[in-house]
């Protein structure tokens, strides 16, 4: 069984399709999505549809990202709506439009998708060796005492990466690596490799440290962290 962590997708459904074809997860594998399914890319709706479909046949853990938080809050608050639509929410709404080129509204988002975002995604996930979280952790706090700023908003500082009190390696997204390279800080590994911005969408087998990456034009590359590609 592999434990596979997938970084920030941000509406790039075609890249997710290519990545899953490359990785070939089996029902025995555990697939952990690190959040930020929506916004910025062209097909937030399609990304959520694909994740929901994968859950029907595979062992899938879905974390919540800061963009899901913003999307949820925008549903009820006009000021939050303005914030969300300024950082990628308009692209998400575009994927829910009833006709090409015409953006949808929050009322066009299916109940199933709201349930996924607001109720079914979780804030973090732990195994014996790893902590999976969207953004980061406060090193000195147990996971059930972490606050929103750390879980969803803090950016990874590679000079002073979090080393959690548990000794577990933190697997995160959120801090976009515009180089397209997974950032390995030993105590923390960032799998967000700037998919929506012309980078790569990445998946990491956290035990073997093998990774797979795909880009916007369908290229696939793979390697092992710590070894030259």
Query: Could you state the order of secondary-structure elements as H and E?
Result: EHEHEHHHEEHEEEEEE
Amount of helix: 25-40%
Which structural class is indicated by helix and strand composition?
alpha/beta
**For the report, how would you describe the main beta sheet?**
6 strands, mixed
Q: State the shape.
A: globular
Rg, nearest Å: 17 Å
CATH topology: Purple Acid Phosphatase, chain A, domain 2
**Helical stretch tally:** 6
Q: Span from first to last CA?
A: 24 Å
Mean pLDDT: 96
Strand content: 15-25%
What would you give as the CATH superfamily? Metallo-dependent phosphatases
CATH architectural name: 4-Layer Sandwich
């Amino acid at each position: 069984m592999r434990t596979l962590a997938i970084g920030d997708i941000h509406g790039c459904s075609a890249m997710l399709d290519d990545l899953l074809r490359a990785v070939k997860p089996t029902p025995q594998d555990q697939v952990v999505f690190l959040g930020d399914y929506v916004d910025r890319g062209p097909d937030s709706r399609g990304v959520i549809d694909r994740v929901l479909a994968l859950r029907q046949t595979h062992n899938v853990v879905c974390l919540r990202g800061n963009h899901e938080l913003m999307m949820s809050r925008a549903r009820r608050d006009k000021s939050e709506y303005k914030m969300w639509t300024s950082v990628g929410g308009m692209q998400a709404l575009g994927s829910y439009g009833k006709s090409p080129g015409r953006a949808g509204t929050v009322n066009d988002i299916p109940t199933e998708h709201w349930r996924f975002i607001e109720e079914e995604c979780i804030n973090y996930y732990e195994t014996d060796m790893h902590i999976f979280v969207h953004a980061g952790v406060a090193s000195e706090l147990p996971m059930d005492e972490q606050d929103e700023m750390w879980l969803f908003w803090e950016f990874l500082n590679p000079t002073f990466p979090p080393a959690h009190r548990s000794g577990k390696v933190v697997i995160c997204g959120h801090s976009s690596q515009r180089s397209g390279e997974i950032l390995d800080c030993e105590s923390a590994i960032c799998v967000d490799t700037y998919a929506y911005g012309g980078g790569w969408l990445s998946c990491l087998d956290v035990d073997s440290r093998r990774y797979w990456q795909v880009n916007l034009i369908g290229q696939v590359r793979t390697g092992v962290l710590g070894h030259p590609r």
